[in-house]
Design a protein that fits this description.
Elements lengths: L17 E2 L10 H13 L2 E8 L4 H7 L8 E9 L4 H4 L2 E8 L4 E7 L9 H4 L4 E8 L2 E12 L1 H8 L11 H10 L10 E13 L8 E7 L5 E9 L4 H14 L11 H18 L1
Parallel strand pairs: 2-6
Antiparallel strand pairs: 1-7, 2-10, 3-4, 3-8, 4-5, 5-7, 6-7, 8-9, 9-10
Amino acid sequence: MLRGPEYVWMGAGPMATATAPRKDSARLSDAEIIEMMGLIKGSKTVELKLTVPDDARYHTLQALGIDPLEAEIRQVVFFDTPDLELNKAGVVVRARRTQLKGGDTVIKLRPVVPDNLPEEIRKLPNVGVEVDAMPGGFVCSASFKGLADNDDIKAAIGGGQSIRKLYSKDQRAFYSAHAPEGISLDALSVLGPIPIFKLKFTPRGFGRKMVAELWNYPNGQRLLELSTKCLPNETFQVAAETRAFLIGKGVDVGGAQQTKTKTALDYFSKQLKASAKE
């Protein structure tokens, strides 16, 4: 059972103002708890996340009553350099195609300290400031979102359209202000795409909406993530309730955690470097 904020079970992050999910324990240090609570206070939303061990995926789907036929098909692509220079600088550039819907884009900064973001940026309706938390780790990010046509994203993936044109003028300005100097959007490499199945559902016996995402990487690896969102002032109560519910369903909440983006970037970075050597 959850015994306090040091056991917040769900986020991840590679740099300062973030902690990467641990393999050995979900316990945070006192300093990390204080840091996380400060980030939560300044954020708009909190997303609690859990990745399920591969050998527990089938049981989890059955236990939560998840019907794969109800899932939405998506395709995600990232843009970065082969050496992941954007990621190292805390910048993520992503586009996403969705079946029977329009596409979307995002320029994301992470980690960030909400109070350090300019007020005019925080007030923009297309900018979300959110803390992701998973067992033993957390990160706060600022995401500048936009819309894009599915066909345009497909063309950019295939090299038939400028990457820059997928993003709005304001998104491009946001990128220029935070990306490493000299790295333009059109100079980035394509990392992806990755097919994803996403399902929003409300489990029986649990009064909150959840999301299940299954990421299918080209090497055959699959990553199942469960998540739920809440307001900052609800974080610890929702975390405790969600953890208790999942444990009651026999879901493994103590497995080693992975993050979807890092797994994708690491894989495609290696592929790009290998292709460059051929």
